[in-house]
Specification:
Length: 203
């Protein structure tokens, strides 16, 4: 009985804490406010921090795509890929109807990272391939999530791997934005490399 009273008292204290900061009564709101408070303490304690020091955080949500998006991806082999011109933007926080300012690229990338068992703070660099930037993750994997991928982009990517400018074990392709011809070109070019690169196409 006493244990229940202690738990109720703690819950009430957390609710009062959220109310004092005008936040809804959700656990994630409690965490966000604690991080915000900690950033103030750190900033006050360590005066020599860079002005660009990142006190922020990312808030991840698991949400279902809209029915309209689901209908677009329910396709057969005869469907033309020009229907998928907006299949990156379709997964932005705005199009999914959730709070935040994540674009579709971020949503798809972090969905793939979670699927591939990467931590949210995995090392990630953006690499340029003839004008299109792709995330290079953990010095081993590239996620090809891009519109307007063309032959010159494939050449730049494959040349970087072939010249050992990048060590790449796997390339994950977001299939909705890559035309079949471009995908085939990429597959053929990768097969000509000395080092085997695993190509995954996801829909």
């Amino acid at each position: 009985m006493r244990q229940i009273q202690v738990v109720k008292k703690d819950i009430k204290a957390q609710i009062n804490f959220l109310d004092s900061h005008k936040r809804p009564h959700f656990i994630d709101e409690l965490t966000k406010q604690r991080i915000f408070n900690a950033s103030i303490i750190i900033n006050n304690k360590f005066k020599n921090l860079s002005k660009n020091f990142d006190f922020g955080f990312k808030h991840y949500r698991v949400v279902a795509p809209t029915q309209e998006t689901l209908e677009k991806i329910d396709y057969d082999d005869q469907l033309q890929l020009d229907l998928f011109d907006d299949m990156i933007d379709a997964f932005s926080s705005e199009k999914l109807g959730v709070a935040g300012n994540a674009d579709g690229f971020d949503t798809i990338l972090h969905t793939y990272l979670a699927k591939d068992n990467y931590k949210f703070d995995v090392p990630l660099q953006m690499k340029d391939f003839a004008g299109i930037q792709l995330p290079y993750v953990n010095n081993q994997r590239i996620y090809l999530i891009a519109n307007n991928w063309r032959a010159e982009n494939t050449r730049a990517l494959v040349n970087a791997i072939g010249k050992n400018e990048l060590v790449v074990q796997t390339i994950v392709v977001y299939g909705y934005t890559l035309e079949m011809e471009s995908l085939r070109e990429l597959e053929i070019a990768l097969n000509q490399l000395e080092n085997k690169v695993n190509l995954q196409v996801r829909y």
